[in-house]
Specification:
The complex is a heterodimer of chains A (240) and B (501). By secondary structure, chain A is of the alpha/beta class. Chain A is 13% helix and 27% strand. Chain B contains 16 helices and 21 strands. In chain B, α11 packs across α14. The chains are: A alpha/beta (240), B alpha/beta (501). Chains A and B meet through α1 and β12 of A and α3, β5 and α7 of B.
């Protein structure tokens, strides 16, 4: 795999170098450079170090692997492709993503999967191995978000106000969620075997990327959350 | 009766002597006002359904119809006017948030009408645009702050990306979904023929309109509907919508019932789900965060497209614009409080925001004071009604104007302000195929071209009268404006003198 040393390169120079390449690239010494892989439609990127915000924004089919942590807005408005993070991610991961998959071995900050959508054959999926911060799946309009709570067993699996404004898609939490408050317009219930079949393949992928045993992951209760309506504001207005 | 009865707002007056019961009115009215009473052989009307869109009046071959204000009035009260009382009844009956369309109709000051334009007399000659060359072309984008030369001494002439317009007007954002396919087609065709740009709004770009990409501004809003790499690549410029003059500080909820067919496909969301644009961009809490979105768009399009940041005119607009100018944006669009909308809560539309005239003057002055005016171009919008408004806006500091309501009027809109119903009889603010086809995109485009060509000539005449032969020389030239009947404070903010001074 061809290498680019990102040491002391600013984001613009680094991204321009990336655009000039046609092969798979390993970026060494990544240190906060933003927008890596923005809009990229092919190739694989392997990142050593810590990329900056908006990694893989508008991603359109490429595959990005990060050896450690990533910062905010990973996969913003992503259309297709795959992002694999071997550490934690910051806030707003997968904001408005419409397709592709994001795998996070560790935990996610606030607002993961906010306004995630789905459209025809495009069903975005995000698996978070650790816990998720507050406002998980806010305004979720489609797609699948899975949170596994594997990293810190004592931490609540999700922060406050998950699924606020949710009007599409599904959320899976590997917990009974007795200590989690969901909003009125979403329904949380224990996941059935049938429900879990829907996420079996992405869990297999997750286990393959991060060396987990799927049986151990599945050997725990899951809660599934779905919206009650695709039209949460229908009754709110009167014509004037 | 569960709810409080409300007198219909309008009366349908039909001249029985003229009416031939041809039933054209019935076929033209999607609201179901007119019907044929077979036993009596006459047309009757249900005025409770009338929105005064003038469709039936326009199409009645016998000129037998007129729509008037219902003269059954509540007792006059200067404090509790009829509209205020009706709004209370509506809310008491329904419990709903009042929803309105198009721009603020309240009698708030229109500063354009209190500003007058100069002309040359004796000491410098006016210019006749019919006889002498006159430049209405403008380029929007960052301008270099200083002259730079390469090692060989030659000027470095690479500029940041620019939009070229043949006249200082663009059609402002109206999404496919809020307006029809045919309305979009007319705007796209007209913009292309005129050498200006139209704007997709936040509903994505229909695949049929990709060929008009060079004359399209593609919008990215908080809902990110229909935003993907090809969409961004197709536009001549990318606009980040932070706010809208008709509804500053709130987002949009497009009802699932309207997300059907091509609208769903273009927005890339399933049919029947609400299209929710959250009020904030949830990743933008600061100018630094805005900078991140600006640069992510620039990176995704390899720095070849100017990025516009559209904000609503609000109290602190000058400071906000200064921040936006430092965010890396190439162009700032400011939308005043009279700007139109396909639907907005009435209370927001009528009470939030400030007039574009004051906002524009304050922003232009602030950017000049800070020495960063050249970093951005300014587009002013929010009820630009005529070529005179355009000229006044340019002299107050705008590089160009956004025009939408005037463009809709050219397409046949009669400003009945019921876009939110989705039953526009003129085929503009509707997705019903039977209604959409009433707007012929070619004829609509022709009228838009007519309107803009007329405005362009008027702009030249007004400029010529001042002895100015290019938009460049008019921009920010506030000496060409005088106020009438304005207070000292208003004159100070507008940066103009009073007439007679």
């Amino acid at each position: 795999m061809k290498q680019i040393d990102a040491k002391e390169l600013d984001f613009r120079t680094l991204n321009e170098r990336l655009r000039q390449e046609t092969d798979d690239i390993e970026i060494l010494n990544c240190c906060g450079q933003r927008f890596i892989g923005a809009g990229l439609s092919d190739r694989k990127l392997l990142l050593r170090g810590t990329p900056g915000n908006a990694l893989g924004a508008y991603l359109n089919g490429a595959e990005i692997t990060v050896g450690g942590n990533a910062q905010d807005a990973v996969g913003d408005t992503m259309n297709a492709g795959k992002i694999i993070i071997h550490g934690d991610v910051g806030d707003a991961a997968g904001y408005a993503m419409r397709g592709g998959t994001i795998f996070v071995k560790g935990s996610a900050g606030y607002r993961a999967g906010i306004h995630m959508k789905a459209y025809q054959d495009k069903i975005p999926q995000m698996v978070i191995g650790g816990a998720a911060g507050s406002f998980l799946g806010e305004y979720q309009a489609g797609g699948v978000i899975v949170v596994l709570g594997l990293e810190e067993p004592d931490r609540r699996i999700v922060g406050n106000f998950p699924c606020t404004g949710m009007h599409g898609g599904k959320l899976f939490l590997r917990s009974r969620c007795e200590d989690v408050r969901f909003p009125e317009q979403a329904t949380a219930r224990p996941a059935t075997k049938q429900d879990l079949k829907e996420i079996h393949n992405i869990l297999l992928d997750y286990c393959a990327f991060f060396a987990y045993d799927i049986n151990k992951i599945l050997d725990a209760p899951f809660t599934v959350v779905t919206p009650d309506t695709a039209n949460p504001y229908r009754r709110m207005y009167v014509e004037n | 009766m569960n709810g409080i009865y409300m007198t219909p707002e309008f009366d349908v007056i039909r001249s029985d002597a003229r009416c031939t019961a041809c039933r054209v009115c019935q076929r033209q009215c999607a609201n179901g006002v007119h019907s044929f009473l077979a036993e009596k052989g006459v047309m009757v009307s249900d005025e409770t359904k009338c929105v005064n869109c003038q469709r039936c009046v326009s199409f009645c071959p016998a000129r037998a119809l007129k729509i008037v204000r219902n003269d059954n009035r509540l007792r006059e009260n200067a404090n509790w006017d009829q509209d205020t009382i009706r709004e209370i009844y509506k809310q008491a009956n329904s419990g709903g948030v009042l929803l309105s369309s198009m721009g603020n109709p309240k009698p708030l000051p229109v500063y354009w009408d209190k500003i007058l334009i100069n002309a040359s007399q004796v000491t410098n000659p006016p210019i006749d645009p019919l006889r002498e060359p006159m430049e209405t072309r403008v380029f929007l984008g960052k301008k270099p702050e200083k002259v730079t030369r390469g090692a060989d001494g030659n000027l470095i002439t690479t500029l940041p990306p620019q939009i070229e317009l043949t006249m200082p007007v663009l059609f402002s954002a109206m999404s496919y979904g809020s307006i029809s396919y045919n309305a979009h087609a007319a705007l796209a065709k007209a913009a292309t023929e005129l050498g200006i740009l139209y704007n997709t709004g936040e509903g994505g770009l229909h695949e049929d309109f990709y060929p008009y990409g060079a004359h399209t501004v593609v919008q990215v809003a908080s809902g990110r509907f229909g935003v993907h790499e090809k969409y961004l690549e197709t536009g001549a410029a990318i606009e980040i919508k932070m706010g809208q003059g008709a509804k500053p500080g709130i987002g949009g909820h497009m009802a699932g019932a309207e997300i059907v067919g091509d609208v769903s496909r273009t927005r890339m969301i399933p049919e029947g789900t609400d299209a929710i644009s959250p009020a904030p961009h949830h990743d933008i809490y600061s100018i630094e965060d805005l900078r991140q979105l600006v640069y992510s768009l620039k990176e995704a399009t390899r720095y070849r497209k100017p990025v516009i940041v559209k904000v609503a005119a609000v109290h602190n607009i000058a400071a906000i614009a200064s921040g936006v100018a430092r965010s890396g944006a190439d162009i700032i669009a400011i939308d005043g409080f009279r700007g139109g909308t396909g639907a907005a809560p009435t209370r927001i539309r009528d009470n939030v925001g400030i007039p574009i005239e004051l906002a524009l003057a304050a922003v232009d002055q602030r950017l000049r004071d800070e020495g960063i005016r050249g970093r951005v171009s300014l587009i002013a919008g929010g009820s630009i009604r005529s070529a005179a408004d355009v000229v006044k806006a340019l002299a107050l500091g705008a590089d160009a104007c956004y025009v939408a309501t005037a463009a809709l009027l050219a397409l046949g809109c009669h400003l009945c302000r019921t876009c939110q119903s989705g039953k526009c009889n003129w085929g503009i603010a509707t997705q019903e195929p039977e209604l959409v086809k009433r707007l012929d995109p070619d004829r609509g485009s022709e009228r838009l071209v007519n309107l803009m060509n007329a405005w362009r000539h008027e702009i030249m005449e007004l400029m010529g009268g001042m002895g100015i032969n290019s938009v460049e020389a008019l921009r920010g030239n506030r000496l060409m404006l005088r106020g009438v009947g304005l207070t000292q404070k208003e004159l100070e903010i507008l940066g103009i003198s009073h007439a007679g001074e």
